[in-house]
Design a protein that fits this description.
single chain, Helicase, Ruva Protein, domain 3, 6 helices
Length: 155
C-alpha cells in the first residue's frame, strides 16, 4: 500500500515538473483582445494548419508576444501584418491574398480535384471499352440454369 502511495505521489509531482509556464497575456484586456484577433489571422509556421492563436509551439508564443509588444508600441494591425509578411512571406497569412505567387494555393486544390475526376472518368471509359460484353456459350448457359434450378429446390 505504501509503495502505491509513493508511486502515485511521484507521478503527480512528475507531471507538475513537466508543466509549462502559462502564456503571458497583456495586462490590458482590450490590448489582449486585439492581439488575439490579430493572432487568428496569422498561420503558425511550425504547425502550418493552425493559427498562432491556437498553437502552443514556441515560435507561435514568440510571435504572439511580438504582436503584443508592437501593439503596445502603437503599431496598427495593418502595420503588424505588413511586418510579419515582410519577415515570413505570404505564407504567414492564414488567408493569403490572391496574386501570382499565391495562385497555386488558391487554384491548386481545385486543379487536383479536376485532375482526379478526369483520371477517374478516363479510367471508367477505358475499362468499359476493354471489356466488351460476350454472350454466354450454350454450355455456360446450361450450367447457370442448373445452378439456379438447384437453388430454387432448396428450402
Amino acid at each position: 500500500m505504501r509503495k502505491l502511495f509513493v508511486l502515485l505521489l511521484w507521478l503527480i509531482l512528475a507531471g507538475s515538473a513537466l508543466a509549462k509556464e502559462a502564456p503571458t497575456v497583456a495586462a490590458d484586456p482590450v490590448l489582449e483582445k486585439r492581439a488575439m484577433a490579430l493572432a487568428e489571422e496569422l498561420r503558425c509556421l511550425v504547425c502550418q494548419n493552425q493559427t498562432i492563436a491556437d498553437s502552443h509551439a514556441e515560435l507561435a508564443v514568440d510571435l504572439k508576444n511580438q504582436i503584443r509588444e508592437k501593439l503596445k508600441a502603437g503599431m496598427s494591425e495593418a502595420q503588424i501584418i505588413d511586418y510579419m509578411v515582410a519577415r515570413y512571406g505570404d505564407f504567414v497569412l492564414y488567408r493569403p491574398p490572391l496574386k501570382a505567387s499565391t495562385l497555386p494555393l488558391w487554384i491548386g486544390p481545385f486543379a487536383l480535384l479536376f485532375a482526379a475526376l478526369a483520371g477517374l472518368f478516363y479510367y471508367i471509359l477505358r475499362r468499359r471499352r476493354s471489356t466488351p460484353e460476350q454472350p454466354l456459350s450454350e454450355a455456360d448457359e446450361a450450367r447457370v440454369r442448373s445452378l439456379l434450378d438447384a437453388q430454387e429446390e432448396r428450402p
